[in-house]
């Protein structure tokens, strides 16, 4: 196996594939990166058993400048291999596998020899063929991930809640995540065959890595589902993830349909105020911020108290406030995550009581995106 390639372009592909490689895997060969060279191009594969990323570099790619001398396959220890390639001095990298999987890497006057492993021992990726593939715009998918993955659970005690529940039915894609303290739900209407149906739970960690992998180089991504795997195809990159097995909780009943108090805010302004209040709440053992709404006076006050440090109180600017007077306490970190997901928009917050979950929605398209937060009991 022997080839030469444009080193900076090769490093970029290595970085993509390395997202899937973990040093904590129980399968030793998965700490390596698999390279398969054919007359058509070079395929790089990384995996940690939960996610796998495959990147293909065709010989027709002018930027890669890939020149194939002889074909073959090898697995190289990912951390050493990538660090060496990144630090080589010249633009061109020469790669050659010799006897006993000894691999020589040359660039300019620098030459490294590292030991590889037999690629036949590397686990094979699943073949996912389906007629019900789904095409998604990458910016839309990345936004959907950012808006929902914040609410997945980090506790392994309920594994099903560590994922995002994706349901496709009637041309509408619904994404929901909850850790039982908060919930994020996003809907997207798609111009596709309404008969295509999906109901899957994708690990939140997988979606975070997918979002990082799908950079600005990609416009669209194809999604395929089969058995316990999901595959995302974008350009010459393939991203595989296992699916979580089990039944996701019925979350629609958690979202209140009525409210007693409503207030509209500018999301960035409210976020800034909560960030200020949380400076003190983080010094307190319970990390709580209080919101007091007095609709008859049009006043909304935010406050936080830390016995060891001090307290803060601030009057908030609101677009409108209506309904019954209310005092409610909440975790400011949950609120900050929710507000960041709205970006530069106006939002409406609807409350039912001091101890019931409250909702945040954009004032426009309020049925497409919702964040729900459970308040904190302070008495």
From TrEMBL:
Residues 137-250 form the DNA polymerase III beta sliding clamp central domain. Residues 1-126 form the DNA polymerase III beta sliding clamp N-terminal domain. One of its GO terms (molecular function) is DNA binding. Transmembrane segments: none annotated. Confers DNA tethering and processivity to DNA polymerases and other proteins. Acts as a clamp, forming a ring around DNA (a reaction catalyzed by the clamp-loading complex) which diffuses in an ATP-independent manner freely and bidirectionally along dsDNA. Initially characterized for its ability to contact the catalytic subunit of DNA polymerase III (Pol III), a complex, multichain enzyme responsible for most of the replicative synthesis in bacteria; Pol III exhibits 3'-5' exonuclease proofreading activity. This is Beta sliding clamp. It comes from Loigolactobacillus bifermentans DSM 20003. One of its GO terms (biological process) is DNA strand elongation involved in DNA replication. InterPro entries: DNA_clamp_sf (IPR046938), DNA_polIII_beta (IPR001001), DNA_polIII_beta_C (IPR022635), DNA_polIII_beta_cen (IPR022637), DNA_polIII_beta_N (IPR022634). The keyword Cytoplasm applies. GO terms for cellular component: cytoplasm; DNA polymerase III complex. Residues 253-376 form the DNA polymerase III beta sliding clamp C-terminal domain. Belongs to the beta sliding clamp family. The keyword ATP-binding does not apply. SMART domains: POL3Bc. It is found in: Cytoplasm.
């Amino acid at each position: 196996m022997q080839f030469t390639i444009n080193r900076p372009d090769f490093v970029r592909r290595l970085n993509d594939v390395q997202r899937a490689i973990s040093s904590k895997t129980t399968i030793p060969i998965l700490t390596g990166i698999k390279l398969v060279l054919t007359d058509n191009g070079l395929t790089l594969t990384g995996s940690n058993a939960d996610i796998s990323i495959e990147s293909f570099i065709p010989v027709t790619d002018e930027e890669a400048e890939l020149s194939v001398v002889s074909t073959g396959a090898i697995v190289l220890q990912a951390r050493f291999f990538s660090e060496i390639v990144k630090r080589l001095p010249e633009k061109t990298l020469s790669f050659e596998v010799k006897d006993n999987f000894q691999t020589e890497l040359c660039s300019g006057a620098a030459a490294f020899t590292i030991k590889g492993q037999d690629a036949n021992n590397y686990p094979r990726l699943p073949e996912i063929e389906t007629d019900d593939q789904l095409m998604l715009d990458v910016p839309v998918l990345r936004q959907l991930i950012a808006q929902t993955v914040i609410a997945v659970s980090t506790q392994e005690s309920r594994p099903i809640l560590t994922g995002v529940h994706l349901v496709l039915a009637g041309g509408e894609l619904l994404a929901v995540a909850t850790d039982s303290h908060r919930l994020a739900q996003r809907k997207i209407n798609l111009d596709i065959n309404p008969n295509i149906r999906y109901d899957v739970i994708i690990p939140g960690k997988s979606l975070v890595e997918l979002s990082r992998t799908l950079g600005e180089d990609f416009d669209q991504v194809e999604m395929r589902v089969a058995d316990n795997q999901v595959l995302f195809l974008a350009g010459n990159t393939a991203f595989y993830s296992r699916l979580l097995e089990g039944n996701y909780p019925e979350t629609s009943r958690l979202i209140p349909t009525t409210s007693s108090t409503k207030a509209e805010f500018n999301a960035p302004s409210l976020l800034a105020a909560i960030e200020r209040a949380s400076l003190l709440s983080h010094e307190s053992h319970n990390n709580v911020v209080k919101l007091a709404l007095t609709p008859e006076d049009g006043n909304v006050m935010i406050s936080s108290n830390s016995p060891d440090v001090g307290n803060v109180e601030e009057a908030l600017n609101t677009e409108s406030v209506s309904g019954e007077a209310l005092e409610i306490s909440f975790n400011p970190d949950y609120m900050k995550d929710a507000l960041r997901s709205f970006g530069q928009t106006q939002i409406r917050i609807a409350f039912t009581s001091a101890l019931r979950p409250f909702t945040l929605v954009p004032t426009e398209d309020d049925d497409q995106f919702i964040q729900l937060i459970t308040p904190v009991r302070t008495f």
